[in-house]
Amino acid sequence: MTTVNTSNLLAMRNAILQQNSALQKAAAAPAPNPLVGGIGQTANAVNAPDGGFTATLRGALGEVNNQQAKASAITESYERGETTDIAAVMLQRESASVGFQATLQVRNKLLSAYKDIMSMPV
Fold it and tell me: Could you tell me the Gene Ontology terms of the biological process aspect for this record (predicted)?
């Protein structure tokens, strides 16, 4: 069993602080998006408050539509034999599916909020 002394504690503290600062720097730097038309681009569309709620929602729906179109195109390409990378096809299809499911959940929450507001007494 190792004994706990101040030098060991300070060394562990410094290591944790260095890891923490490295993580903060990594979080602050824009990460490259490995997925073409992936979720990162949808998040960027959602974070753009310039056009208001309607423009943000329209942009997010456009991104989901683009993801589904790309998934459909790569699936058809695979079926024709032009693409042999099944992992890329499945990844694109799952990305489109996750985007669609997220859109459905947002729609459901908006409808629920609308119903709650409409049932409020005046």
Answer: bacterial-type flagellum-dependent cell motility
